[in-house]
Design brief:
The complex is a heterodimer of chains A (535) and B (461).
Chain A lengths: L3 E10 L11 E11 L4 E5 L6 H8 L8 E9 L2 E2 L5 H7 L4 E4 L3 H4 L6 H13 L3 H14 L5 H4 L9 H13 L5 E5 L7 H18 L2 E6 L2 H7 L2 E6 L2 E7 H6 L4 H7 L16 E16 L4 E17 L3 E5 L6 H8 L7 E6 L2 E2 L5 H10 E4 L13 H11 L6 H14 L16 H13 L5 E5 L7 H18 L2 E6 L5 H4 L2 E6 L2 E7 H6 L4 H9 L4
Parallel strand pairs in A: 3-8, 3-9, 6-7, 7-8, 13-18, 13-19, 16-17, 17-18
Antiparallel strand pairs in A: 1-2, 1-4, 4-5, 9-10, 11-12, 11-14, 14-15, 19-20
Chain B lengths: L1 H4 L2 E3 L2 H20 L3 H12 L1 H19 L3 E5 L11 E7 H5 L1 H5 L17 E4 L5 E4 L16 H34 L9 H22 L14 H37 L1 H16 L2 H18 L7 H19 L2 H14 L3 H8 L4 H37 L11 H12 L7 H28 L1 H4 L1
Helix pairs in contact in B: 3-17, 4-8, 4-9, 4-17, 7-8, 9-10, 9-12, 9-13, 9-15, 9-17, 11-12, 13-15, 14-15, 15-16, 15-17, 16-17
The chains are: A alpha/beta (535), B mainly alpha (461).
């Protein structure tokens, strides 16, 4: 008997009546899978494939708007859909627990660790007082929180993101469940932390014979963790096999796409040119910390503390670092969106420091930017036409009448969209399409350098590859240079000529892509590379 | 009608403003034709039944206010031996002419709706010299009744009459509209919910005709303490309500929008200054501030009596000052909200992208920030509108509201304090004010809801 057996599960968004009538919509379409004790099943799919809904329906936590119309879920032979709500509460947390993607919002900010974890223990096991405290300390120790005794009275904000996720895991484990459902547990974390959390999960399931349903979109994580893999798309399971077989010989076309969504590890030849397009020399960006009524400056947050780099014509420099390393601030400082405290930025031989807004205007045309989140980078109240034309108008590059119209259409076609999309609003497009529009907006003014601030990390893997291809193609055709800011090491070889690794506002290593990736010199680079899951 | 030819028109300041307001609204809708995107959105507002019905109700209120804003003075009979024409000190409006029957029929004191006897007993001397204490017959209401006729049957008869006339007018109007649609091509206006339009217009016409037909013979909503028709007072108060709501809101809006967005967008020193201003302002009790300002205005009126020769002019000036003061003291809430929202929006990537394109600050504010905070402005607009109508009532209570000579729902509600503590209760005054206010505020709320839905792109599809 399996630990968990899901068969023929079907979830539907019922038909609605009234002014916004819509027909019934099947979100999960008769899927079946099973998990044995001590086994990790990875449920893989892109956003909207129904994988999170599947997880929620196992614990019967689906939003009210959705209904389960068929199927059964058996936990250790017991039919969960037949239980009353009260009996179900004894299952949740007790026999099957769940951890979520965002530890930041899953922990109550006004409760200490002891209160939060202890609450579960009191509720399910009736423990109080010293026994409860000991149990909490034991759990914190098990998930690898240092000095658990002292940290009992800490609040969530005093912990780092990885530690918060550990606390979440401790809470999930508090009642010794048999099944753990992990919904994208590491997506919000940096690679080095991700590795630690994955190791922790792996070790726990071995110790406790825990069955784990791991939901993820990251094929690297799957290949490192999973025993079995189920690939989901549009509510269907396309392929469900053991991990070894799956990676050796994927059956479904879509599975192959997912596995090969990561580009081949093929380094781009360096393009050494004598003249640098952009030179950043000892750049420092310090943010003042203010306190008191008079807002006195009491100290500085050194976001960027002495960074020097160069980008040549037609070259891509990847700036790598974890969150908070200051890599985005470097990009913003180059764009003069952030005031540099010290240092010099030279573009095409001209210093950009101390230029007024007006003096900077000619350079706005030559340096452009693409942001990470395609949902917030476009004004929801402007049509695509207005969005594309805004920069051209502002920089005096807009043509007149037909010529202008032709230019806009040509831009959209250039990034793989259609001319008829011009009068739509951003919300009518998918994430990948939006990112294409953002790229079209940037190349509309024919820049020489584009700062790409994590342009692919908010996208699904299959779309990520397409957007990267587009960027490469544009680089070839237009001779663009990129400063590619990213935390995702897997895409660098395919994309960058050179790499700079950043940590705590300082560059720790810089060099040709092949050198840095294959023979890292600095400890931190080595740790980063070791942490990144590979296929 | 002959009288109207010889009258002297009077234009009060608030009349100017209301005409200006209506004119800008009309220009706005004419201008819409040029902007295809905005036109499409407004179309979706009027294509919804709720939006259309509430719009018609609002228009009806505004029409009453407009009618009540065409002021004039009647000429007085010429004195002997003088050629100079003198005019009455009393300022009348077209609405007074339309509702002449309601206006002129003042009783002595309270009477309940459709009553033909007074609400309180009076000493009466009978023909034989005996003094009895009884409810006297009202002077006007039901005075046409003959001995054997009862109020019920008479009202029913007249209501039926009004129904027939009203339906007739509505039918003619509907036919006219249909004809117009035929001429302009039926397809062009097929998107409007015509059924709702006809129903709402029909309802409004029926009510109007009924009031005109029955109101001359009875006090539909009774009379107040000094015997004035309550329905007439409530209708006269429409102008006060509509004006105080819109004018005070129009004064708060630019202050709140400009200061709030400037503080949130430019941050730093400007933010500090704006914050200090509104923190200081909101730390003084609003009522005190308003009372003090109103008293200042009163002093001004006293010392500059020569500028206000008519009592209507004085009341009007005091009213405008009240709108201004209300507006000046209540922009802080909206300003605070806008500052916070702007802080958030100005950090979004699309604003950063615009800055990377070298788009000027004024364009960023106009194109990116303002459109993305309008939902707050719209909601605040409607809430403030009803808030101001209510605030007027509170201020009347402490004696710093609109001039007592001016009809306002606030004054009516204020009087209800004493009326509701009587036994038996005088309920019609406050009910009339409540119903009139309720319909206006509800229509404004529903309309604003539709507008917000139409202009939020995330809810369009």
């Amino acid at each position: 008997m399996s630990l968990l057996e899901v068969s023929n599960l079907t979830i539907e968004l019922p038909a609605s009546r009234g002014p916004f009538a819509s027909p019934a919509h099947t979100l999960v379409n008769g899927i079946s899978f099973a998990i044995e004790p001590g086994e990790i099943l990875a449920l893989v799919g892109e956003s909207g494939s129904g994988k999170s809904l599947t997880a929620l329906s196992i614990l019967r936590l689906l939003p009210d708007a959705l209904t389960i119309i068929a199927g059964s879920v058996q936990l250790q032979g017991e039919e969960l859909f037949a239980l009353t709500e009260k009996q179900m509460n004894r299952v949740r947390g007790f026999r099957a627990a769940m951890i979520f993607q965002e530890p930041q919002v899953a922990l109550n900010p006004v409760q200490t660790l002891e209160q939060q974890i202890g609450e579960v223990l009191t509720l399910h096991k009736g423990q109080t007082g010293q026994a409860r405290r000991d149990a909490v300390v034991g759990l914190l120790q098990e998930v690898g929180i240092p000095d658990p005794q002292q940290r009992l009275s800490w609040y969530p904000h005093q912990l780092s993101g990885g530690q918060k996720q550990r606390v979440m895991i401790a809470m999930a484990l508090a009642c010794e469940p048999d099944l753990l459902i992990a919904d994208e547990p590491t997506t919000a974390l940096d690679v080095t932390i991700q590795k630690q959390i994955l190791e922790l999960l792996n070790q726990l399931r071995k110790q406790r014979q825990l069955g784990v349903l791991l939901i993820t979109h990251d094929m690297g994580v799957v290949s490192e963790m999973a025993d079995h893999v189920a690939v989901m798309r549009h509510g269907d399971i396309l392929e469900y096999r053991s991990a070894v077989e799956f990676f050796a010989n994927p059956q479904h076309e879509y599975s192959r796409q997912l596995i090969h969504s990561l580009p081949e590890r093929r380094f781009r030849p360096s393009q050494q040119q004598p003249q640098a397009l952009l030179t950043v020399d000892n750049l420092k960006v310090w943010f003042p910390q203010r306190q008191g009524i008079l807002q006195r400056v009491v100290g500085h947050t050194k976001a960027v503390d002495g960074v020097s780099l160069q980008i040549h014509k037609g070259e891509t420099l990847a700036l790598v670092g974890e969150s908070g390393s200051g890599k985005s601030t470097v990009g913003r400082a180059i764009l003069a969106l952030e005031q540099a405290t010290e240092g010099d930025i030279r573009f095409d031989g001209q210093s950009l420091q101390g230029l007024s807004d007006k003096q900077f205007l000619p350079y706005r045309k030559r340096i452009q930017v693409i942001f990470q989140d395609p949902f917030s980078s476009m004004n929801p109240r402007m049509t695509i036409r207005q969005i594309l034309a805004e920069g051209m108008t502002s920089l005096g590059l807009a043509g007149k009448g037909e010529e202008h119209e032709a230019k806009l259409e040509q831009l959209l076609e250039r990034v793989g969209l259609e001319a008829q999309h011009l009068d739509r609003y951003p919300h009518e497009f998918s994430g990948g399409q939006r990112q294409r529009i953002a790229i079209a907006r940037a190349i509309a003014v024919e820049p020489e350098l584009i700062i790409c601030d994590e342009p692919t990390s908010a996208l699904d893997v299959s779309i990520r590859g397409q957007v990267m291809e587009l960027l490469l193609e544009l680089q070839r055709d237009m001779g663009l240079s990129y400063l590619f800011i990213t935390h995702d090491l897997s895409i660098i070889p395919h994309l960058a000529h050179r790499v700079a690794v950043m940590k705590n506002g300082v560059l720790v290593e810089q060099g040709l892509c092949a050198d840095v990736m294959d023979a890292p010199q600095h400890e931190y680079t080595k740790a980063l590379l070791a942490a990144a899951p590979v296929l | 009608m002959e009288m109207l030819m010889t009258v002297k028109p009077v234009l009060l300041w608030s009349d100017w403003l209301i005409f200006l307001l209506v004119l800008t609204l009309i220009l706005f809708f004419i201008n819409l034709g040029k902007n295809p995107v905005a036109r499409k959105r407004w179309r979706s507002v009027f294509a919804s039944r709720v939006g259309m019905a509430s719009f018609l109700v609002i228009v009806f209120y505004v029409l009453i206010a407009l009618l009540d804003s065409m002021h004039f003075r009647y000429p007085l009979d010429k004195l002997e031996g003088s050629d100079e024409q003198h005019y009455s000190q009393e300022v009348n409006s077209l609405l007074d002419v339309v509702l002449e029957d309601l206006r002129g029929h003042d009783e002595k004191t309270y009477s309940s709706p459709f009553a033909i006897h007074s609400f309180s007993k009076e000493n009466r001397t009978l023909e034989n010299g005996q003094v009895v204490r009884d409810y006297p017959r009202l002077e006007y209401a039901g005075s046409h009744l003959r001995k054997h006729e009862t109020v019920g049957s008479d009202v029913f008869e007249r209501s039926m009459n009004a129904l027939v006339v009203g339906l007739g007018i509505a039918l003619v109007l509907a036919l006219l509209i249909q004809l117009l649609r035929r001429l302009t091509g039926k397809q062009a206006s097929a998107w409007l919910p015509w059924k709702t339009v006809y129903l709402t217009l029909g309802g409004l016409i029926l009510v109007t005709v009924w009031i005109l037909q029955v109101g001359g013979y009875y006090h539909i909503l009774g009379t107040n303490k000094v015997g004035q028709d309550v329905l007439f007072q409530a209708i006269k108060a429409v102008r006060t309500g509509v004006l105080i709501g819109t004018l005070a809101t129009l004064i708060t809006l630019p202050i709140a929008v400009i200061l709030g967005i400037a503080a949130g967008y430019f941050k730093g020193l400007i933010d500090d200054v704006v914050q200090y201003i509104y923190t200081t302002l909101s730390s003084i009790p609003g009522i005190l501030l308003i009372a003090a300002s109103v008293l200042l205005i009163d002093v001004y009126i006293e010392t500059h009596a020569e500028q206000f020769r008519l009592s209507a002019e004085r009341a009007d000036f005091q009213f405008l000052a009240l709108c201004f003061i209300l507006g000046m003291t209540s922009w802080t809430g909206l300003c605070r909200l806008l500052r916070a929202e702007t802080l958030k929006v100005s950090q979004l990537d699309y604003v950063q992208a615009a800055r990377a394109f070298g788009v000027s600050h004024s364009r960023i504010i106009g194109k990116h920030i303002l459109p993305n905070v309008t939902h707050i402005v719209l909601i605040a607009l409607v809430l403030d509108f009803s808030g101001f109508v209510l605030a007027e009532a509170v201020l009347s209570y402490i004696g710093v509201g609109v001039d007592p000579s001016m009809a306002s729902w606030g004054n009516m509600i204020n009087e209800a304090r004493a009326e509701l503590s009587r036994e038996p209760v005088v309920w019609w005054s406050v009910s009339a004010a409540f119903v009139m206010m309720f319909v206006l505020v509800l229509a404004a709320n529903l309309f604003a809801d539709r507008v917000r839905d139409a202009f939020d792109p995330r809810t369009v599809n």
